[in-house]
Amino acid sequence: MQFRLLSGFIIFIGSYLPLALILAVQDIPVSWWSNSFCNFSNIEDCLFNPFSNPRLSIAFILVTCISVVVSNVSLKKIAFPFEGEVKSSKTIPNDIINYVFPYVVSFMGISYDTPEKLLGFSVFLIWMFAITYKSGQIIMNPLLLMFGWKLYEAKIQINNQGRDVRVLRKGVLTPGNYKFQSIQDFYISKDC
After folding, report:
1. Within this chain, do residues 85 and 63 fall inside the same structural domain, yes or no?
2. Looking at beta carbons, which pairs linking 54-63 to residues 24 or more positions away fall under 8 Å?
3. pTM score, two decimals?
4. Number of domains present in the structure of the chain
5. Which domain holds residue 163?
6. Inside any domain, residue 67
7. How many Å from the N-terminal Cα to the C-terminal Cα in the chain?
8. Pairing state of beta strands 161-170 and 186-191?
9. Could you report the per-residue pLDDT of 77-111, keeping only the tens digit for each?
10. Phi, psi (5° rounding) for residue 14?
11. What separation in angstroms does the CA of 29 have from each of 11, 17, 26?
């Protein structure tokens, strides 16, 4: 099974929720932080919008939040047509280098006030998506770790054939029987 382009993009964009939050915080002027807390008796004087560029800040946060939710719901709805046995497994570190670069870049002058840098950063993200999608690495999403998903290197047996594979599983993968789905170069597992 191969991720569809849209599904892969949603999973990819969802992984950038922390970046959206970083850029949003950087979009709040220092002067806003020194304002007094809102007095609800005089609601007209309250400042509810702290952002210098509210459309971009809020849009990026909403898009990434929705992508995270859709990714998690999609992973729960995957069909698992194969039954197999895990002989042994060990956790492997999640390759987060592809996701580190944009976070570092966010502290090096990217802001919603500079549209030319933001456009360049968008091209960079599209390029990163193309590379991770074509290489079959979309599923190596560090945000999945926050939701309890772990990546394993496992020896499994499906249809009496032994295989050394990478398995994505929510929770611990111990020896035993599981259901599997193959997506790109990975297997996703759940209990039988």
Report:
1. no
2. 56/27, 56/112, 56/118, 57/23, 57/24, 57/27, 57/112, 58/24, 60/20, 60/23, 60/24, 61/17, 61/20, 61/21, 61/24, 63/13, 63/20
3. 0.77
4. 2
5. 78-93+148-192
6. yes
7. 20
8. parallel
9. 888 999 999 999 998 865 555 556 665 665 567 78
10. -60, -30
11. 31, 21, 8
